[in-house]
Write a structure and sequence with these properties.
By secondary structure, the protein is an alpha/beta fold. The protein has helices at 3-18, 91-104, 163-175, 196-204, 215-223, 248-272, and strands at 25-28, 41-47, 65-71, 74-80, 108-117, 127-135, 181-187, 209-211, 228-237. It has a single domain (3-272), classed as Rossmann fold. Helix content is 32%, strand content 23%. The protein has a 5-stranded mixed beta barrel, surrounded by 4 helices. The structure holds hypoxanthine.
Amino acid sequence: MSVVLQEIQSAVAFIKNNYTETPVIGIVLGSGLGSFTGEIKIEKEIPYEAIPHFPVSTVEGHSGKLIFGELSGKKVVAMAGRFHYYEGYSTQEVVFPIRVMKYLGISTLLISNAAGGMNKSFKVGDLMIINDHISMLTLNPLLGKNEEAFGKRFPDMSEPYRKDLIDKAFSIAAAANYEVKQGVYVGVTGPTFETRAEYKMLNVLGGDAVGMSTVQEVIAAVHMGLPVFAMSVITDIGIREEENTITHEEVLQAAKDAEPKLTHIFKELIRVL
Ligand code: HPA
């Protein structure tokens, strides 16, 4: 058995000792989107540092714990705080929690993130359902010897974001009278925001939004056959006329402002899953 599989099993065993229910949905919350956890009827919180082999989160706006409880009538596990490659974690560490949640028993993964808009019709505060992604030099977490227990060597990536979940989310958004965009998320390493030339290039290459997370998590989920739904909050506009700059604070504020809509869509999606 590989070291990573042993580590996951020991993390899962520890969690199961502390919380005996089986979550059916896993949730990853992006920058500035952590107050979503206030919606969960919390049954157990486990700080990352308490879990064997779990990485520990460092970025502002990420608190760092697994939250277990009930939401929309379902048992869920939410990651308050995720791990980014730019923080210095290995790809194995970035996807470790995704694998742990799968081994805890989840059957669907919901992901949120903050992203920079590149599609010319986007504005700050928009929600974008991710219908595909482009990895822009983010290291693939499946490099190295394949762990067959997770999945096969060459996973198909024709539908990393499940169409049926996207359709359900659009119906929920329409019923709530929300205008929701959809598009291609470009995953970059960061931690710099893009130059003006880079935003333009990524848009020409087919990207609608760009961010520093998600792609590696989704690859690990697809590898394990775990259905994914993901949504970006557009927190800044990369391609713009004015001379303004982008700050992390502005990203967090825009995410907070858009959060209620994202929360509603996630909650209702969980209800119908
Ligand atoms: N670029 C990359 N990552 C981001 C951005 C951006 O403009 N906004 C929020 N995360």
